[in-house]
Amino acid sequence: MNKAIIGKKVGMTQIFNADGKVIPCTVIEAGPCVVTQLKTEEKDGYNAVQFGFEDVKEARLNKPQKGHLKKAGDSLKKYLKEFRFEDCTMFQLGDVVKADMFVEGDFVDVTGTSKGKGYAGVIKRFNASRLKESHGTGPVHRHAGSMGACSDPSKIMKGKMMPGHMGAEQVTVQNLDVVKVDAELNLIAVCGAVPGPKGGIVVLKNTVKNNKLVKGEAGVSKNPQKASARK
User: Fold this and answer.
1) Cα–Cα distance between 94 and 47 in angstroms, integer?
2) Ramachandran area for residue 137 (φ above 0: left; ψ -120 to 50: alpha; else beta)
3) Which family is annotated (predicted)?
4) Residue 74 near residue 58, CB atoms below 8 Å
């Protein structure tokens, strides 16, 4: 990992590119984040950097939290997140990280908490099919149906799709394209949808996907007997 930041989801909008095409994107208020802790391999067993995001009143923190955050300066932060960068030596305690860490054209993985849907049945939760609508269904047309258990193993197996709490889970959307960066307002626009509601906390990291650059002459043969080589 060489790029990461904590942000807040502002909402969705659309941007027109240079070709006049509409790009649906999500606007994220990325930073400013403060480096609140530096972890080293000698002291902690691994190298990492802790970022703090969003100011909070001093009265809302306990003494250990205030003592930990005041080592990095006077700004007290509400959300803390740890990142393992390839080179942690480029950060110092108290440094401010802004949205200009990313540039247009970067690919990022965005992690957030999805919206909570409450208690839901199998049709809404897992897209299960309902029972027949003809004859004999009774008042159970949206129930889960048979659980598949018999005398052996005489139990419902783990992983069975059943009703329960839906949403409010950590979700990561991978390989989103950064289409615009506003360093003055600390805003990053990424192409696509981001999990969570407006105002939800999200984490941006450079993607783990391998995005290979397309070469300009790919697919063009040098063999004059092929059509792609003829002019």
Assistant:
1) 17
2) alpha
3) Belongs to the universal ribosomal protein uL3 family.
4) no
Q: Report the C-alpha gap between 53 and 75 in whole angstroms.
A: 10
Q: Which residues of the chain have pLDDT under 70?
A: 1, 213-222, 224-231
Cis peptide before 64 (omega within 30 of 0): no
* Whole-angstrom distance, CA of residue 16 vs CA of residue 26: 14
pTM of the entire structure? Answer: 0.78
**Residue 177, Ramachandran bin (φ over 0: left; ψ between -120 and 50: alpha; else beta):** beta
Q: What is the pLDDT of residues 154-198, one digit of tens each?
A: 888 888 889 999 999 999 999 999 999 988 899 999 998 899 999
pLDDT of residue 171: 93
Q: Which residues contact 23 (CB under 8 A, 6 or more apart)?
A: 14, 15, 16, 17, 179, 191
